[in-house]
C-alpha cells in the first residue's frame, strides 16, 4: 500500500448544490432583464422616436446578443467561466446605467447593444460551466433548470419593475436591473474559481468559434439548421399572441393576461422537461415540443375570441415549456471537451440567429396577411420537429446503465485526447460515446479507473 496521501473524493454535484452558485445568480440576472426589457421602447418614445424606430431600438438587443456570441466564445476561452461572468456583469451594469441616464437615442441604442453583448457572454459562460461540472445523468435537468430560473426571473422582473416605476420614476426598472446584476455579480465573485477546483478539458490556446463551422460543417448544416428553426418559432411565440389579440380588437389588459397565463404554463414545465430528457432521451422532449408549437401556430389564426385565443396561447406555453433547456442540452452533448466555449458560441449563434429573424419574418409576412405569417411559422415548427427527430445525437447511456452515476462526456480526458465518437447503432441512429480505450476499464460499481 502506498504511503502517499490521496485527496478525498469531491462531493458529487447535485442540482441542490448548484442553487447558490448557478441558479440564484441566473435568477437575479433574469429578473434584471425582465425589469428593464419593457422600458426600452417606452424610453425610446420618450426621447422622440417613432413607433417604428422604437421597435428598431428594441431589436438592437437581439442584434447585440447575436453578434456577441462569437466574441463571447473567445472571451470565455481566455478568461474562464468565472472571469467571463464578472466581465459580463460589469458590461450589463454599464448598459443599464446608460439606459437609465440616456438623453438621446444614439446613447440609448448603444447601451441596448452593450446589454445584448453582455447577455451573450453571461449565457455562454453559465452553459459552459454546467457542461463541465454536471454529470451526464443530470445534464438535461441542470440545463432546463437554468433556463427555467431565468424565465422565472424574467416573469417576476416586470412586476418588480412596475413597483420601481412608482418609486423612482419612468426609468426605475433600469435601476432594479442594476441592483439585481450587482447582486448576481457579487455572488459569482465570492465563489471559488472553477478552474482552481478541477482541470479544465479546454485548457490551452482557445479555439476560434468560426472554425467550429468548418470543422463541424455537416453537423451545423443539419442539426444547426434545425436549431435556427427552433430559435425562430420560439421567439415568434412572444410576438404572435399580442399581435393576434390586437387583430381581434381585444383590450390590451385581456391580451396581457392571456400572455401571462401562457408564460406561467411555460415556467412550470422546466423540471419535468429536463427529467424526461435525462431518463428517456432528448428526442422525447425536442420533437413533441416543436410539434405542439407548430400546431398551435397553425391553430392561432382560427382563434376568433378571447377564450379560443387563451386556449391556443396556453397550448403554446405548454409546447415551449416542454422544450425548456433542450438547445443548451444539445449543445452540451455535442461540444468537444477541448473546444467547449468555441463550439457552444457557434451553437448559440445558430439559436440566436433564429431568435432574431423569427419576429422579423412575422413582421414581413404580416404586411400581406398576419394569419398567413403566423401559419407559416407553424410550418417552420413542423420542419424543426422533423429536423430534430432526424439529426439529434443521443448520449451513450451505457455508463448510466452500468452504475447509474454517469459522467460528463469526455470532461476528464487529457488535453488533446479523443473527444466524442459518433457511431451508428443497430437501428441506424447516430450515437455519441466516450472511447472505451480512454475511459478505462469498468469497476464493479460502474465507475472508471
UniProtKB/TrEMBL annotation:
Subcellular location field: Cell membrane
Name of the featured protein: Putative MFS family transporter protein
Major location category of this protein: membrane
Bilayer disposition of the protein: Multi-pass membrane protein
Keywords: Cell membrane, Membrane, Transmembrane, Transmembrane helix, Transport
Keyword Cell membrane: yes
Annotated Gene Ontology cellular component terms: plasma membrane
GO MF terms held by the record: transmembrane transporter activity
Keyword Nucleus: no
InterPro entries in alphabetical order: MFS, MFS_dom, MFS_trans_sf, MFS_Transporters, Sugar_transporter_CS
Source species of the chain: Actinoalloteichus hoggarensis
Superkingdom of the organism of origin: Bacteria
SUPFAM superfamilies reported in the protein's UniProt record: MFS general substrate transporter
Amino acid at each position: 500500500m502506498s504511503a502517499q496521501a490521496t485527496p478525498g473524493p469531491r462531493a458529487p454535484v447535485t442540482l441542490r448544490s448548484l442553487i447558490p452558485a448557478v441558479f440564484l445568480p441566473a435568477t437575479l440576472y433574469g429578473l434584471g432583464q425582465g425589469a428593464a426589457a419593457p422600458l426600452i421602447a417606452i424610453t425610446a418614445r420618450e426621447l422622440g422616436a417613432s413607433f417604428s424606430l422604437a421597435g428598431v431600438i428594441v431589436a438592437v438587443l437581439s442584434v447585440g446578443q447575436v453578434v456577441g456570441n462569437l466574441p463571447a466564445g473567445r472571451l470565455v476561452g481566455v478568461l474562464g467561466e468565472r472571469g467571463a461572468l464578472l466581465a459580463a456583469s460589469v458590461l450589463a451594469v454599464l448598459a443599464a446605467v446608460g439606459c437609465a441616464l440616456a438623453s438621446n437615442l444614439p446613447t440609448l441604442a448603444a447601451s441596448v447593444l452593450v446589454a445584448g453583448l453582455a447577455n451573450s457572454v453571461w449565457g455562454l459562460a453559465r452553459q459552459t460551466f454546467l457542461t463541465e461540472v454536471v454529470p451526464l445523468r443530470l445534464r438535461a435537468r441542470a440545463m432546463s433548470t437554468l433556463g427555467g430560473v431565468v424565465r422565472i426571473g424574467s416573469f417576476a422582473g416586470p412586476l418588480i419593475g412596475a413597483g420601481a416605476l412608482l418609486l423612482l420614476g419612468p426609468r426605475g426598472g433600469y435601476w432594479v436591473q442594476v441592483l439585481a446584476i450587482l447582486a448576481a455579480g457579487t455572488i459569482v465573485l465570492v465563489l471559488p474559481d472553477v478552474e482552481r477546483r478541477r482541470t479544465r478539458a479546454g485548457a490551452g490556446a482557445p479555439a476560434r468559434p468560426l472554425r467550429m463551422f468548418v470543422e463541424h460543417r455537416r453537423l451545423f448544416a443539419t442539426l444547426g439548421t434545425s436549431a435556427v428553426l427552433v430559435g425562430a418559432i420560439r421567439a415568434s411565440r412572444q410576438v404572435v399572441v399580442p399581435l393576434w389579440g390586437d387583430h381581434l380588437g381585444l383590450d390590451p389588459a385581456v391580451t396581457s393576461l392571456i400572455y401571462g397565463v401562457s408564460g406561467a404554463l411555460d415556467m412550470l414545465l422546466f423540471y419535468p422537461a429536463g427529467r424526461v430528457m435525462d431518463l428517456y432521451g432528448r428526442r422525447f422532449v425536442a420533437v413533441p415540443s416543436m410539434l405542439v408549437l407548430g400546431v398551435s401556430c397553425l391553430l392561432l389564426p382560427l382563434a376568433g375570441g378571447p377564450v379560443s385565443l387563451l386556449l391556443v396561447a396556453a397550448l403554446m406555453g405548454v409546447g415551449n415549456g416542454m422544450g425548456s433547456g433542450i438547445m443548451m442540452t444539445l449543445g452540451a452533448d455535442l461540444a468537444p471537451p477541448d473546444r467547449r466555449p468555441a463550439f457552444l458560441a457557434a451553437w448559440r449563434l445558430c439559436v440566436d440567429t433564429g431568435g432574431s429573424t423569427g419576429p422579423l419574418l412575422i413582421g414581413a409576412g404580416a404586411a400581406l396577411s398576419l394569419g398567413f405569417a403566423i401559419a407559416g411559422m407553424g410550418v417552420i415548427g413542423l420542419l424543426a420537429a422533423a429536423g430534430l427527430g432526424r439529426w439529434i445525437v443521443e448520449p451513450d447511456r451505457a455508463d448510466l446503465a452500468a452504475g447509474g452515476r454517469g459522467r460528463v462526456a469526455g470532461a476528464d480526458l487529457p488535453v488533446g485526447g479523443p473527444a466524442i465518437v459518433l457511431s451508428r447503432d443497430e437501428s441506424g441512429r447516430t450515437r455519441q460515446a466516450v472511447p472505451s480505450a480512454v475511459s478505462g476499464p469498468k469497476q464493479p460499481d460502474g465507475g472508471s479507473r
